[in-house]
């Protein structure tokens, strides 16, 4: 069977769901918070013609694959070796896509779009990191950045994932501006659904230490984007008729509250002048 699949260039583990996007059966599935964030990231880039896209911390490569499907030339940066392997499988059908371990002297600096979802909160020197990402953009290029919101919402899951902070709206504006970006808008996404799932997420990892059984914050950072041990157990519920209805309603409902501070995460859309 595997030989037949290979001959037809079919990946047996890869599934592309019309509602949730690509996934790797039994290994990586989209968590509810990812689905809500994905809805806004894809919307924030819908007007962009095919160009060059860089994703910092691409994890499994699921989001980057969707940009490749839109015709973009994709480049992913990921420190985790396991994640790079997953991303390679996700992007197998797009041979021009590249996945590397770090930004270096050979990394192009003319990207039309740079994406960094749930990465900056793991980095102690966040201003230095953001400034480096901005340098990868061409003048007029766009940055889409997502981070967890509100330090008062700090919980067990933040520790599990290797976070070092959450952000305020004003703090994000100041950080982006200091790195030479022109902020177009900031969305506070997820309300009301993600506020409920965040409670469940904190409860589900309360006895699990760090992501992927990591021994340090740095290792937890590498594991948090691909550790789906909890979500795999409950993904059948998410793909049930009721689960799909709840997630669809959540994606639509959050759009009415993007200008508030009621959600659980921020998405920054900015431009390099």
TrEMBL record:
**Does Methyltransferase count among this protein's keywords?**
yes
State the InterPro entries in the record.
SAM-dependent_MTases_sf (IPR029063)
Keywords, sorted A to Z: Methyltransferase, Transferase
Q: Name one GO biological process term.
A: methylation
* UniProt-recorded Gene Ontology molecular function terms: methyltransferase activity
Under Pfam families, the record lists: Methyltransf_23
Please list the coiled coil stretches.
none
PANTHER family (alphabetical): METHYLTRANSFERASE TYPE 11 (PTHR43861:SF6), TRANS-ACONITATE 2-METHYLTRANSFERASE-RELATED (PTHR43861)
Q: What protein name does the entry list?
A: Class I SAM-dependent methyltransferase
Q: Which organism is it from?
A: Novosphingobium album (ex Hu et al. 2023)
Taxonomic lineage: Bacteria, Pseudomonadati, Pseudomonadota, Alphaproteobacteria, Sphingomonadales
